[in-house]
Amino acid sequence: MPAVSKGDGMRGLAVFISDIRNCKSKEAEIKRINKELANIRSKFKGDKALDGYSKKKYVCKLLFIFLLGHDIDFGHMEAVNLLSSNKYTEKQIGYLFISVLVNSNSELIRLINNAIKNDLSSRNPTFMCLALHCIANVGSREMAEAFASEIPRILVAGDTMDSVKQSAALCLLRLYKTSPDLVLMGEWTSRVVHLLNDQHMGVVTAAISLITCLSQKNPDEFKTCVSLAVSRLSRIVSSASTDLQDYTYYFVPAPWLSCKLLRLLQCYPPPEDGAVKGRLVECLETILNKAQEPPKSKKVQHSNAKNAILFEAISLIIHYDSEPNLLVRACNQLGQFLQHRETNLRYLALESMCTLASSEFSHEAVKTHIETVINALKTERDVSVRQRAADLLYAMCDRSNAKQIVAEMLSYLETADYSIREEMVLKVAILAEKYAIDYSWYVDTILNLIRIAGDYVSEEVWYRVIQIVINRDDVQGYAAKTVFEALQAPACHENMVKVGGYILGEFGNLIAGDPRSSPLVQFNLLHSKFHLCSVPTRALLLSAYIKFINLFPETKATIQEVLRCDSQIRNSDVELQQRAVEYLKLSSIASTDVLATVLEEMPPFPERESSILAKLKKKKGPGAVSVTELEDSKREGGELNGGGDRGPDTAAMAASNTSTPSPSADLLGIRSAAPVGAAPSSAGSLLVDVFSEAGPTAPSAAVNDDGFLSSAPPSEDPAPPLSEADELLNKFVCKNNGVLFENQLLQIGIKSEYRQNLGRMYLFYGNKTSVQFASFTTTVSCPGELQSQLNVQTKPVEPLVEGGAQIQQVLNIECLSDFSEAPLLNIKFRYGGALQNLTLKLPVTINKFFQPTEMSSHDFFQRWKQLSQPQQEAQKIFKANHSMDTEVLKAKLLGLGTALLDNVDPNPENYVCAGVIQTKSQQVGCLLRLEPNAQAQMYRLTLRCSKDSVSRRLCELLAQQF
Amino acid sequence: MIGGLFIYNHKGEVLISRVYRDDIGRNAVDAFRVNVIHARQQVRSPVTNIARTSFFHVKRSNIWLAAVTKQNVNAAMVFEFLYKMCDVMTAYFGKISEENIKNNFVLIYELLDEILDFGYPQNSETGALKTFITQQGIKGQVKTKEEQSQITSQVTGQIGWRREGIKYRRNELFLDVLESVNLLMSPQGQVLSAHVSGRVVMKSYLSGMPECKFGMNDKIVIDKQGKGGASDDPGKSDLGGGSGKQSIAIDDCTFHQCVRLSKFDSERSISFIPPDGEYELMRYRTTKDIILPFRVIPLVREVGRTKLEVKVVIKSNFKPSLLAQKIEVRIPTPLNTSGVQVICMKGKAKYKASENAIVWKIKRMAGMKESQISAEIELLPTNDKKKWARPPISMNFEVPFAPSGLKVRYLKVFESKLNYSDHDVIKWVRYIGRSGIYETRC
C-alpha cells in the first residue's frame, strides 16, 4: 500500500485485524483468513522482490493468523530475511516471528543463527538486545550450543552497554536452566560475581538472578559472592530513600534487589569472616528496625515492598538459625503481623512462624503468641490462614502446652474445613501420642477424635491406639471402660466400633466386675452395632466374640447361638463365613485350656516408628514437620511404647525393614503372620558388603550352625558334596551374585556373568577368622558326562589366606552342550593345623545360558503348538514355597534369563516366558508358562523346549524356586 | 421430552428462552453458548451432551435453535419438531433472521405455547395455527362465537388439519416432486455411493372435504398389479408421461399425518384428506437405478513441486430436450496455492481464495453435452512435508426430472357431498432434481 506513510504502523494489518474482529461467524473468519493467506502466498511467490515494509506487514499478518490458532507453513524465509534488515521495526518483527514460530528445521536454524551472530557482534545495543531476547525466548538446545560460549563474553566485556548486560545475564540464566551442561562458566566465574559491584543497579539485579541459580548448583565456585552481596546489601539498606533515584520504589530503596540479595545469601551458611558477618547482622538489624518505623507513605505499594524485604530477611535469619536475639526479634515482629488487617500478612506471618518454632532459640518466643494463634484458628475467615494457624499450633506444641493445644485443635476440628480434616486428625493423634504423660488423657483424646471426625480417622490412627493400649498395662482397664461408655452412644462411628471390638475383646475382663458392664452386657452392646458395620469390621467383631468365649465362659452359649445363625454361617462373604464356621467349631471342640492358649492376650507390639507419622510424612505437611522434629518424636514415641522390654530382639526387628504388619491382622493371626513373627536377621558379617548388590531380599547364607569342623572328615580326598549343596545351588538359579557358602571359618561369595554360551564367575574366599589359612587349594571338577558338556578353566589361588582377608578366583566357563549336573568345587586348607576339606556344587545351571527372546502372542502360541510332542513338554504342579507376590515372581522369572512376555496369555495372572539356551553345539528354544493359583497356593509350571532333556532339567530347577 | 427451547444469535446472546420443565435452569443457556457456539473447535454433532443435559440444535443462517432436555428423548422427534418450528416461523414472518425474531418475539412465544405443551409437541400445522394465532393484534380480531367453537372442534377433532366448509370457485391442485441426488464417485468413474432423497410437496385448493388417492410407479404396486393380470385402470397411468424404466424401488418413506397408514400398510395405496394450502405429502429415499444427471471426469497432474495442472470435463447425461440449470463445479485447490490461471469453454470460472477452490458456474446446459475447464495452479514451496489430501470435486445443479425415476401415475380426487368430480380438478405436476452432496474424487 504505497499511499500509507511508512512511519505510522501498518494500515493493511490494522484493516485485516478489524475485518477479523467484525466477522459474524467462525466460517466468515476462516474465509477471510483463507483469502488473506492466498494473497500473502501470491506476494511471496519468489519472482517479485518485496520491500522491507511489505515483508514486515505480511509476516505480521501471518503471525496474527498463527496466534488465532491456524497453521502457518510458509513465510519463515521472509521472516529470516527481515532479520538482516537495518530497520529496528523490521528486525523486531522478524525476531518476534522466529521466537513464536521456530521449529528445528535445519537450514533455517543455520540462517537464523547466522543473523543472530551478526547482531551480537554489531555495535548497536538495540540489535544486540533483540538477538539476546530471541535466544532467551527460543531457549532451545541448538541455540544453547551455538551461543553458550558467546554470551558470557558479552556479559563481562568492559565496553558492553548496561542494557545489553542485563539482557545477556537473563539470557544466560535461561540457557543455563534449559541445558546446564552447555553453559560452562569456568573462567568467567569471578568476573560474573564481580558484576555485583556494577554501578548500574539494573545490571546487578539481572546478574544476581543468574548468580543465585548458578550458585545453587555449584556453591563452592561462587563462594566469593557472599561478601560482595553483603556489602551491596549494606549499601542499599543504609542508603536514604532518595539516594537510588530510579530504583527507589515508593520510598523503599531497591526492594527487588534487596530481596534477591537476601535470597542469594540463603544459599550459603553464615559467613565465617567476622567482619562480613558483623556487617550482615547489622544489615538485618537495620531491616528489622526500619520495619518498626512509621510508614513514609499510606500507599499499599510502600508497605508491600517493605514487608517483602522484611520477610526475606526473616527467612535468612531462620536459615542461619544462629543469632538468638535476631530470631527473637523476628518472632516479635511477626507477632505484630498476626493481628494485621491484611490477610496475606497474617498468612505469611504464620508461615514464617512455623519455621521459627522449630528453631531452639525462638521456640519459647513463638510460644508466647499461642493465644493469638488459637484466636486466629477460631475467628479467621480465610481457610488457608486457618490451616497455617493449625500448622503453627502443631509446630509450637511441646509438653507444657500440649493439653491446651490438643483441646483447641479438637474443638476446631468440629468446624474445620473438610479438605484439611484428615491432616488435622493426624496431627492431633501425633501430638496426643507424643506429649502424653497421662495415658488416660491420650485414650480420651483419641476416642474424642474418632467421635468428632470419625470419617477422617485413617486406619493408622486407630491401629496406633490399639498398639499403645496393648503395650501399656496401666491404661488397659481405663481404655476398656471408656470404650464401653463411648459405645453406648446411640450412633457411633465405625472406627469406634473397631476400637471398641478390639479392646473389649482383649480387655473386657478388666471391667466385667461392674454389673453395669457385665460380659453379657458388653457382648450385647457390641452385637447391637454388628449389623450396621462393613465386612472388615464384622470380621473383627467375630474375632472379638471368640475372644469373649475365652474371657467369659458364661457367654459361650449366646455367642455360639449368634455364630450358628444363618446370617453368619452362611454369609455370602467368604471371610465372614469362614470365621463363623471356624470359631464355632473351635469353641465347641477345643477344651478350655486349648482355647486359653489359642486366644491368649495379644503380645506387646514391637516398637517402631509410629505409622501415623509415616502417613503424615507422605501427606505434604507444608513446613510444619521438619525432619529433626520427626526424629525427635520418633525417639519420644520409642520411650512411650517401647517401655522397658526393649530387648535385642526388638532392635533387630527395627533394623529389618519389614513393613508394619497391619494390626487389622485379626486377633488370632489367622491370615497374616503374628506381629512378632521373626524376621530373618541378616548376619552382620564383615564380608557381606562385597555382595551388597544382592539386595536385602537375598536370603543370607545359611549359617552352618553346628560348625563344620566336626562334620567334615579330615582327609586329603575331596569330601563328598555337602548335604545342603543342592539347596545352595537352588538359591542361585534366578540370580548371579550372592553368598554361596558360609560357616564359622570361611565365606564364599560369587559374582558371575554370562553371555551366549560363555560365562565368567568370580569366587571370593573370605577368611572369617583372625588366623591365616595355609595350603589353601581349590579344584573345580566336572564329574561324569559333564566333562563333555561343560568346559571350566581356572587358575590356582594363592596358598595363604591371611586372617580377615579375602582372595579372588576367576573361572571361565563354556557350555558345550546342554547339561543337568553341576560342577563340583573342592576346597582344602589348613586351619590351625587341622585339615579342612569341603566340596560344594558350583551354581552353574543350564538356564544361565539363556538369551531372552521377545515375541508376540501370536508367535508364542504358534511355537508352543510346534513343540507339541509329549517328551518335549515337562509339567509340574507344586505347592508354593515362597510368597506369591507378583513383583517377586516377575523378578525371579527375569532372573532366570528369559524374556517375560506381557499380554500373551489370555489370563493376566499367568506368566509366560521365552528364551533360547545357547550352547556351543546347538541352540535350544524354550517356552515357559507359569500359572499361579493364589487360593490353593499352588503353581502349575509347563515347559516346552526343542530338546526333551532340557525341559526336564529346567522344570526340576524351577519347581524349587517359587 | 423437551425441557426447554432457546434461540441464540450468532454471538450467543439469547433471543428467545422458553423453559417447559423445572429440571432445566438458566445455566443450561450458558452451557450451550460456551460449549457449542463459542467452542474452539467447530462443533459438528447436532446433539451435544453437557453435564447430563442433551442439547439438540439446528442452525438457520446465523440463528441457533436449541432444544434442551435432561431425559432420554427420541432425538428424531426433537429434530422433526425443530424443523417444523422453522417451517412455522417461516410461514409466519418469512426468513429466520435475528431482526425478524426480535420483531416477532411475542408471536414466537405465543406459537411456542401452542405447539409445545409441557415439552410434548402438539399441533404444528401452519394452516391450523393460522386460524387462531394471527398477526393482526387484538383489535382486528373480532371472531364470532361460532367461529371460535369451530376452531376448537377442528383443533381437537379427528381431522385436525382441515376445517370444514372450504369453498373454491376453481378446484386446483399443484404437485411437486423435489429430489436431491447424492453421489460419491471414484476418479475412474466407479460409483462408490449414491442415493436420492425426495419429497412430494402438494398445494391444494379444493372445496369441501375431498378424499384423494395418490399413485406412483412404486415397484411393489406395479408388480402386484402385473401379477393380477391386466391393470385395473391403464388409462390413468400416463399422468407423469412415463418413459424409461417402469417402476422404482423405494427404500423407505414417511407420510404426512393426513395419510391413512393402515390403508398403506394393507394395500400400499396412499389415500388422504388433504390439508388446505401447502404441505409435504411424503418423503422417500431410493438407492437403486439412479439416473446420474452429470458425470465429472477429473484429471490432475503435478508438475514439479510448484505447479499443478487440473482438467475437468463434465458430461450431461439426460434427454437432449431437457435443460439443466444453476450448474456449479467446485474444484478444491491446495493450501499453498499462490496463483491460478483458468480457461473454460462455457460459463464463468474464478479462483476463490477464501474458499480454497476454483468455482466454475454455468447457467444452462442441455442433455448429452459436454464441457471442460483447465486450470494451472502455481504453488508456493513449503517446508511442510504434508501431502495435499486432494479433497473431492463437488457439483451443484438443478434438472427438470426426477433422478430416482419416480413418476406420478395418478392423483384422484373424490368429493361425494359437493358436486365436482375428478375431471373438474385442474392438476399440475412438476419434477425438480437437485444435487445434494455430489462429489467426484480426483
TrEMBL record, chain A:
GO molecular function: clathrin adaptor activity
Major localization class: membrane
Keyword annotations from UniProtKB, A to Z: Cell membrane, Coated pit, Endocytosis, Membrane, Protein transport, Transport
Membrane topology, as annotated: Peripheral membrane protein
InterPro entries attached to this UniProt entry: Adaptor_Complx_Large_Subunit, AP2_complex_asu, ARM-like, ARM-type_fold, Clathrin/coatomer_adapt-like_N, Clathrin_a-adaptin_app_sub_C, Clathrin_a/b/g-adaptin_app_Ig, Clathrin_app_Ig-like_sf
Span of the signal peptide: none
A biological process term (GO) from this entry: intracellular protein transport
Sequence positions that bind a 1,2-diacyl-sn-glycero-3-phospho-(1D-myo-inositol-3,4,5-trisphosphate): 11-12, 43, 53, 57-61
Gene Ontology cellular component terms for the protein in this record: AP-2 adaptor complex
Domain Clathrin adaptor alpha/beta/gamma-adaptin appendage Ig-like subdomain, chain residue ranges per copy: 730-843
Region (Disordered): 624-666, 702-723
Subcellular location: Cell membrane; Membrane, Coated pit
Biased composition (Low complexity): 650-665
Domain of life: Eukaryota
UniProt xrefs under PANTHER family: ADAPTIN, ALPHA/GAMMA/EPSILON (PTHR22780)
Record-stated family: Belongs to the adaptor complexes large subunit family.
Complex formation: Adaptor protein complex 2 (AP-2) is a heterotetramer composed of two large adaptins (alpha-type subunit AP2A1 or AP2A2 and beta-type subunit AP2B1), a medium adaptin (mu-type subunit AP2M1) and a small adaptin (sigma-type subunit AP2S1).
Main function: Component of the adaptor protein complex 2 (AP-2). Adaptor protein complexes function in protein transport via transport vesicles in different membrane traffic pathways. Adaptor protein complexes are vesicle coat components and appear to be involved in cargo selection and vesicle formation. AP-2 is involved in clathrin-dependent endocytosis in which cargo proteins are incorporated into vesicles surrounded by clathrin (clathrin-coated vesicles, CCVs) which are destined for fusion with the early endosome.
Protein name, entry field: AP-2 complex subunit alpha
Protein's organism: Monopterus albus
Lineage of the species this protein comes from: Eukaryota, Metazoa, Chordata, Craniata, Vertebrata
Automatic annotation (TrEMBL), chain B:
Subcellular location: Cell membrane; Membrane, Coated pit
Gene Ontology BP terms: endocytosis; intracellular protein transport; Wnt signaling pathway
InterPro entries linked: Adaptor_comp_med_subunit, AP2_Mu_C_sf, AP2_Mu_N, AP_mu_sigma_su, Clathrin_mu, Clathrin_mu_CS, Longin-like_dom_sf, MHD
Database matches in Pfam families: Adap_comp_sub, Clat_adaptor_s
The UniProt record lists the keyword Transcription: no
One GO cellular component term: clathrin adaptor complex
Residues at which a 1,2-diacyl-sn-glycero-3-phospho-(1D-myo-inositol-3,4,5-trisphosphate) binds: 348, 350, 352, 361, 363
Top-rank taxon, per record: Eukaryota
Family designation: Belongs to the adaptor complexes medium subunit family.
Protein name as it appears in the record: MHD domain-containing protein
Subunit structure: Adaptor protein complex 2 (AP-2) is a heterotetramer composed of two large adaptins (alpha-type subunit and beta-type subunit), a medium adaptin (mu-type subunit) and a small adaptin (sigma-type subunit).
Function: Component of the adaptor complexes which link clathrin to receptors in coated vesicles. Clathrin-associated protein complexes are believed to interact with the cytoplasmic tails of membrane proteins, leading to their selection and concentration. AP50 is a subunit of the plasma membrane adaptor. The complex binds polyphosphoinositide-containing lipids.
PROSITE patterns to which the protein is assigned, alphabetical: CLAT_ADAPTOR_M_1, CLAT_ADAPTOR_M_2, MHD
Gene3D superfamilies documented for this protein: 3.30.450.60, Mu homology domain, subdomain B (2.60.40.1170)
All copies of domain MHD, residue ranges: 170-441
Chief localisation class: membrane
Keyword Protein transport assigned: yes
Region (Disordered) residue spans: 225-244
Keyword terms, alphabetized: Cell membrane, Coated pit, Endocytosis, Lipid-binding, Membrane, Protein transport, Transport
Topological category with respect to the lipid bilayer: Peripheral membrane protein
GO molecular function, one term: lipid binding
